[in-house]
Write a structure and sequence with these properties.
By secondary structure, this protein is of the alpha+beta class. It is 26% helix and 42% strand.
Length: 330
């Protein structure tokens, strides 16, 4: 047993010597690679927060009827462009037309009665009180006639502004009731971004401020100008509505998804050039210069600003990292 122990220890010593010798030969055999050296420094960085929003038309209206009646005409379809005053919906309003004729007849009768009494008053055959009473009746009849004509005008629904029909919920023959939506009209030329901003960031926004906006569907980057900031936050989502005006762009459509970048708090962070960080699967690694040699080290990165990568863990300020200028440092 003692002899076996001595032999086993000797084998371990010989194996260790050979391993050290092989490691030295491997280190000596590694090729030299030209690199640039960058000293890790602490920089002040502004964190950025990205919120999602939706494109909406600045001018939009839900078209509804003010009176009841069957739809007789609807000369528009989805996507129809309309001008201010164009006919959108025509209701069948036979009862209202009859009321207009009735009010008109009562107005004419009141006018005749008033004119007759005024002539009699000039001949001292009527009293001023009677004339005054007929003048009041005439004004009442005139107001009733104006009301009936206004109700008849409500049977014709026209476009309040230039735009495009983006929704249609009724057709010819349907019964329209007051307040029930019939059409949705939008001016697609002028759009704005509507986003929900966290209450911790909304206090930093001011009207007229410019924020970056990205629309993924059209792959367009725009500058949005803050137009409105809601004075109250939603108690459920803890966000406030913010509206940003953007320039007119033909490729954009109402309802598209967008992203708005907000400037967050400032903090001190470690940054290295993006070329110094190598990604291998899910790992992020970097070469640190120690004793004239580049040693591999795993790091955890954060945001990227102007080709500089934030290092969250794995490096200390003052250390030097290697930036390869050619292939070979792997």
């Amino acid at each position: 047993f003692k002899a076996f122990s001595i032999i086993f220890c000797a084998a371990l010593l010989l194996g260790g010597c050979r391993a050290d010798e092989q490691q030295g030969q491997t280190a000596a055999a590694l090729p030299r690679v030209e690199v640039r050296v960058f000293t890790v420094t602490t920089l002040g960085a502004a964190l950025q927060t990205e919120v999602v929003g939706t494109l909406q038309a600045v001018k939009q209206a839900v078209i509804a009827a003010k009176v009841s009646g069957a739809i007789e005409q609807m000369p528009v379809v989805l996507g129809s462009p309309v001008k201010t005053g164009d006919l959108l919906v025509q209701l069948r309003a036979g009862e209202i037309s009859a009321k207009v004729l009735q009010a008109q007849a009562q107005l004419e009768q009141a006018r005749r009665n008033l004119e007759r009494e005024r002539k009699l008053l000039l001949k001292n055959a009527a009293t001023p009180e009677m004339v005054k009473s007929l003048e009041e009746m005439y004004r009442i009849a005139e107001a009733a006639h104006r009301e009936a004509k206004t109700m008849l005008d409500y049977a014709t629904v026209t476009a309040p502004f230039d735009g495009v029909v983006t929704a249609k919920t009724a057709s010819v023959g349907d019964m329209a009731t007051p307040g029930s939506p019939l059409l949705h009209l939008e001016d697609s030329r002028q759009l704005q971004v509507v986003a929900s901003v966290p209450e911790t960031l909304v206090l930093q926004l001011q009207a007229g401020e410019t924020l970056p906006v990205h629309i993924p569907a059209a792959d367009i980057d725009l500058a949005g100008t803050v137009a409105e900031v809601a004075p109250a936050a939603d108690p459920l989502s803890r966000t406030a509505t913010v509206k940003l005006n953007i320039e007119e762009t033909p490729q954009l459509r109402s309802g598209q998804f967008d992203r708005v970048t907000l400037a967050g708090e400032h903090k001190d962070a470690l940054f290295v050039p993006a070329a110094a960080v190598q990604r291998f699967g899910q790992m992020e690694r970097i070469f640190v210069i120690q004793g004239g040699r580049a040693q591999l080290r795993l790091v955890r990165t954060g945001i990227t600003l102007h080709e500089q990568v934030e290092i969250l863990a794995g490096l200390e300020a003052g250390e030097q990292v290697a930036i390869p200028t050619a292939a070979g440092l792997v």
